[in-house]
Amino acid sequence: MTANTENTLFTPFTLGNFTLKNRIGVAPMTRMSAGENGIPRQDVFDFLTRRAQNGAAIVYTEAIVTDYESAQGYPGQARITTQPQIDAWATVIKGIHKENSLAILQMFHCGRMAWPEVNPAHRAIAPSAITPVQDNPLTQSPYPTPEAMSLFDINHVIAGFVETAKGAITAGFDGVEIHGAHGYLISQFLSAYSNRRPDDYGGSVPNRFRFAREVIRSVRKVVPEDRLLIFRISDWGIADMEVSLFESRENYQETIRLLAGEDIDAISVSTYEFGQDAYGSGKNMAQLTQEVTSLPLMICGGIFDRTTADQALEHADIVLAGKSLLLNPHWVEDVKENKTLPRYSSEEAGIAYTPEPLA
Ligand SMILES: Cc1cc2nc3c(=O)[nH]c(=O)nc-3n(C[C@H](O)[C@H](O)[C@H](O)COP(=O)(O)O)c2cc1C
Q1: How far apart are the CA of 200 and the centre of ligand 1, in A?
Q2: What is the rounded end-to-end Cα distance, in angstroms, of the chain?
Q3: Dist. CA 185–CA 126, nearest whole Å
Q4: What is the assigned CATH class of domain 3-353?
Q5: Nearest atom, ligand 1, residue 346 CA
Q6: 201 tagged catalytic
Q7: Looking at 184, 193, 201, 252, which residue is catalytic?
Q8: How many CA atoms lie within 13 A of 156 on its CB side?
Q9: Backbone phi and psi for residue 105, each to the nearest 5 degrees, phi listed first
Q10: Can you give the residue ranges of every domain in the chain?
C-alpha cells in the first residue's frame, strides 16, 4: 500500500459527467423480492436509499430483467418497463440523489442460466444449446437445455435491453450497466465455453463479442451522453464456477480492447478475490484490464476493510463491495475509521433473499 492510495479512497472521482464524492459503490445485488407487478419490496428500496445516506458514492440496483420471454432467471426479479415500475424507482433515485450519490441500474438476461417456470414465456435461450454442467442451486435440478438463439431472438433480446434502458433513463437513473458477467447471457456469448455458434456470433473473439457490441450500441442510442453506460465483465460464472470463461490472458485482453473501443463510460470487473493472480500472469484482473484500456475501472470481489479497499484501488478507480455493504449498514464509515471488519460469507449473504428487512 502506498501513501498515495491511502489517500485516494475518500477523494472525488470524475466519472463521465459526474463527480463521485468518494470511490466506494454498492455492488449490484439481486434480492428476489418483487411481486407480480415487478416492483421490489419497500424495505429493499429503503435499503438502497440508506446505503447512499451512509456514504456510498454509487448505489447499484439489483439485476433488472430485460424482457418477458426469456430474461428472468430467478423468482421475484424486478422490471422497469411499465409506468408504475418507473414511478417506484423514481422515488428511490430521488432519495439516493439527495445524498449526492449516483444511482445505476443493472440490466440482466439469464440466457442458459434459466429457470423457465419463473419466466412468463417459459423459455430458455442461449448462444448454443449447451447446458451448464452444474445443477441450478435453487431448484437442485439440471438447468434446461436452452434453444440456440435465432437472429430473431438476438434482435428481440436486444430490444428488451433497449426498452429497459429507456425505462431506467425515464425514471432518472444516472446510468445503466449491461450485465456481461457471471455466465449470464452476454457472458455466454463472450465465452467459448458456452458459445459454439457456427455463424458470425461465434468462433473468433471479435465474433463472440458481436452480440455484446450490438447490445452496447443499441442501448447507447437511448442513454444520453450525459448519463453513464457501464459494462460488467468477469472470468467466472455462477454455474461451473471453476471454469475460466476467457481461458487465457490474450483472450481476455482482446475482449477488453474491443469493449474499450465502444462508447462506454466505465468497465466493472467482477472477481472472487480482487488480488488473485489471473491466468498465471502474476497480475490480477484489474491490472490486466488497465494494461489495455485507460477507461475508468471498477473492481469488486473480496474487498471488506480499509486495507483491501486501498489495495484494490492501486489498480482501479472505484471499489464496489457486495456482502460488506449488504450486511453492515455502517461499512463506509467503518472503513474510513479503519476498523477491524469481518469478511462475510455467501451463506451469511443468503439473508438477502429472505423477507427479513436488512439494517
Ligand atoms: C445477495 C447477492 C446478490 C447478488 N446479485 C448480483 C446481481 O444481481 N448482479 C451482479 O452483477 N452481481 C451480483 N452479486 C455479486 C456482487 O455484485 C459481487 O460481485 C460479489 O458479491 C463479490 O463482491 P463481495 O466480495 O464484496 O461480496 C450478488 C452478490 C450477493 C451477495
Answers
A1: 32
A2: 32
A3: 6
A4: alpha beta
A5: 31
A6: no
A7: 184
A8: 12
A9: -100, 135
A10: 3-353
